[in-house]
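User: Predict the complex.
Assistant: Input components as received:
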Amino acid sequence: MDIKTLDSEYIANTYKRASLVAISGHGATIVDENGREYIDLGAGIAVNAFGACDEAWRAAVTEQLGKLQHISNLYYTQPQAVLAEKLCERTGLKKVFFGNSGAEANECAIKAARKYSHDKYGEGRHTIITLEGSFHGRTMATLTATGQESLHVHFGPFLDGFKYASPNDSNALDAACDETVCAVMLEIVQGEGGVRTLDAEYLAHAQKLSIQRDLLLIVDEVQTGNGRTGSLYAYMQFGLTPDIVTTAKGLAGGLPFGACLLGEKVKDTLSAGTHGSTFGGNPVCAAGAVSILSRLDDKLMNEVAQKGIHIRRTLDSAQGVKGVSGLGLMLGIETERDAGEIVSECLEKGVIVLTAKKKVRLLPPLNISYEELNKALTILLEVISK
Ligand SMILES: *Cc1c(COP(=O)(O)O)cnc(C)c1O
């Protein structure tokens, strides 16, 4: 049976798949079952940081694969320790917990925030404020944290102790902050929520409030992290000092990996036995992440920012485009035409793009060439202006 038939027969229908059957790829090129090539402006939802099968990344991963694939967190492994050191050095956060996904990184953040508050203040100070339109994952706790009612139908009852505030509204944040609150959790650019960037003043207010009330500022950088927005982490562009940073998607360049970075206040909150993950910190994924992180330097970050500006200039006043949002190479395009139709027509014409709510979303590999980018943008504009 062909792949599509097998898939629809035997795989749970949680995804509405596009028509592409992806077989292989190199860089920003994906190849389908008929040998047809596509320019990839999605990077597997911001996961393939340097595109498909990047050589340096592959060498790092396969080298570790030839040594040891897994041993569990009952023992020490080198890639995990080296990666944690580098992440802490480059962020100023103090310790790292490794998991396998964004949701797990956020689960860790939620547990750390609650335990910090419980250790220090006792019962009743457990509420986490998140923002309307946010996305924090699909597990029960992270789904509860996700401020989108449309995702909440069917799955109740939800966890106690989450409250949603309207984004970019400092007064609403103040109003939500009662004595039960222990943390504020936000994305610098809401990804799944429609590529919406938070205001600098709002972020500064959230930071100030967190310090004043000893709330933990949790920044979810699962999508915005690892160079995506033109800085290693997006919060760095806003001068924030988060207490907890979570990340995943691009972290290991295509392998399932997540990290919860813990700042000074919470670095020792999670003690032995309070949290864990069998696969978390897997040496093969960690080796991939070390390789990726070593290349996310100032030069590359500058290139990401420049490419973002180039895309904006190309799209901004183009026919059929109402506006462009986002940061670096995480961009949302508001279009006159239906975004879903644009995505499928682009695919037919050999360009992979995504949606985010009603926008067309671009998350290309960080090292995509201007040649590939321009070729793809020409096709995208053709489709948008139709
Ligand atoms: C994708 C995403 C998640 C969930 O990550 P998974 O790896 O799918 O669990 C959480 N937060 C944000 C901001 C995301 O974009």
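The chain is about 40% helix and 20% strand.
Let me know if you want any component modeled separately.
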